[in-house]
Write a structure and sequence with these properties.
The complex is a heterodimer.
Chain A: E1 4-7, E2 10-13, E3 19-25, E4 31-38, E5 42-51, E6 54-57, E7 64-66, E8 76-78, E9 87-94, E10 103-104, E11 108-112
Parallel strand pairs in A: 2-11
Antiparallel strand pairs in A: 1-3, 3-8, 4-5, 4-9, 5-6, 7-8, 9-10, 9-11
Chain B: E1 3-7, E2 10-14, E3 19-26, E4 30-38, E5 44-49, E6 55-58, E7 61-66, E8 71-76, E9 85-93, E10 100-101, E11 105-110
Parallel strand pairs in B: 2-11
Antiparallel strand pairs in B: 1-3, 3-8, 4-5, 4-9, 6-7, 7-8, 9-10, 9-11
Classes of the chains: A mainly beta, B mainly beta.
Chain lengths: 113, 111
């Protein structure tokens, strides 16, 4: 079955540590996205990638980094510079950046202790 | 700056009631409006509305788009407890690079 796989589902980290969230898709989609979801805030865009080896900052990119070395993979690193990293992170993909409909992974919940 | 506003932010109804969720938007070069349902984790796609498709229906759910007044509504008739979820509205612009989401409406359907 085609889809998007995020891992880990739950992650705890101490302050000052970097963590990397994995996102893999087998839908052959060109575009991939990372959103952050906080209670009462909806989804806010962190980074997006329209094609392999290219990515752009979204609305709240500070304290995050990404890479897009393979079409299938779009990992997100939450760095120690992110001041409030505890949140639910959603990875998504679309056929291309103008396709509209997004397909989402199950999400990763990060808690900073 | 593009803006998507959903109302109400939360809603509690009894099974069998009909609910209407609202989504207003301000976006330059509107392309499409999408509705998603998020029960626990991954949002799932419900409808996409564009200039060429301003009304959609699937079972008890229906949605319309008013491009003149810049809003959309999502109707759910004969609600069931399984309809309890957060409903997200998102707008795509021609010049945009990703969907712009509203804050969502949290719907709770009680038995």
């Amino acid at each position: 079955d085609g889809g998007i796989t995020q891992s880990p589902k739950y992650l705890f980290r101490k302050e000052g540590q970097n963590v990397t969230l994995s996102c893999e898709q087998n839908l052959n989609h060109d575009a991939m996205y990372w959103y952050r979801q906080d209670p009462g805030q909806g989804l806010r865009l962190i980074y997006y990638s329209q094609i392999v080896n290219d990515f752009q900052k979204g609305d709240i990119a500070e304290g995050y980094s990404v890479s897009r070395e393979k079409k299938e993979s779009f990992p997100l690193t939450v760095t120690s510079a992110q001041k409030n990293p505890t949140a639910f992170y959603l990875c998504a993909s679309s056929i291309d950046y103008r396709a509209g409909e997004l397909f989402f992974g199950e999400g990763s919940r990060l808690t900073v202790l | 700056e593009d803006k998507v506003v959903q109302s109400p932010l939360s809603l509690v109804v009894h099974e069998g009631d009909t609910v209407t969720l609202n989504c207003s938007y301000e976006v330059t070069n509107f392309r499409s409006l999408l509705w998603y349902k998020q029960e626990k984790k991954a949002p799932t796609f419900l409808f996409m509305l564009t200039s060429s498709g301003i009304e959609k229906k699937s079972g008890r759910l229906s949605s319309i788009l008013d491009k003149k007044e810049l809003f959309s509504i999502l109707n759910i008739t004969a609600t069931q407890t399984g309809d309890s979820a957060v409903y997200l509205c998102a707008v795509e612009a021609d010049s945009g690079y990703a969907l712009n989401f509203g804050k969502g409406t949290s719907l709770l359907v009680t038995p």
